[in-house]
Design brief:
The protein is of the alpha/beta class and 124 residues long. The chain contains five helices and six strands. It has a six-stranded mixed β-sheet with strand order 1-2-3-4-5-6, sandwiched between helices.
């Protein structure tokens, strides 16, 4: 499990690789919170995340709450079908802007129209 960060223009892209479970949720949390404090839009790339446990969902909730506290924007991209189903069933997709891929996520965070953009509230 690891989290890498890149900045593309005014958006921080956090690529998460591995399962977000009780073993790694705190590591992910600690990797993402400082990014949110910069007040830059945050794009979470889940394309290499096969599974998110309850601990991972708590981490995602913490990210959402921190983003709300600073009026920040967070977009999630690269969800596999299983993750999309779980996040829809638990209501978590309503918390985030969701896009199919990196380009769609960057456009969504910049409030530009983009093909493949999915509004999290519509996905639930």
């Amino acid at each position: 499990m690891h989290v890498t960060r890149d900045t593309l223009s005014d958006v921080t892209v956090a690529r998460i690789v591995g399962t977000i479970d009780s073993r790694y949720a705190q590591e992910v949390h600690e990797g993402l919170m400082p990014i949110l404090l910069t007040r830059q839009p945050l794009l979470l790339d889940f394309s290499e995340v096969p599974y998110v446990s309850h601990a991972g969902l708590r981490t995602m909730l913490a990210v959402y709450r921190q983003a709300q506290a600073i009026d920040g924007k967070v977009c999630v991209v690269g969800l596999n079908d299983e993750l999309r189903l779980v996040l829809t069933a638990t209501g978590f997709l309503r918390f985030f802007v969701v896009a199919d891929d990196l380009d769609g996520g960057l456009s969504a965070l910049r409030d530009e129209p983009a093909a493949g953009r999915v509004d999290g509230s519509a996905a639930a």
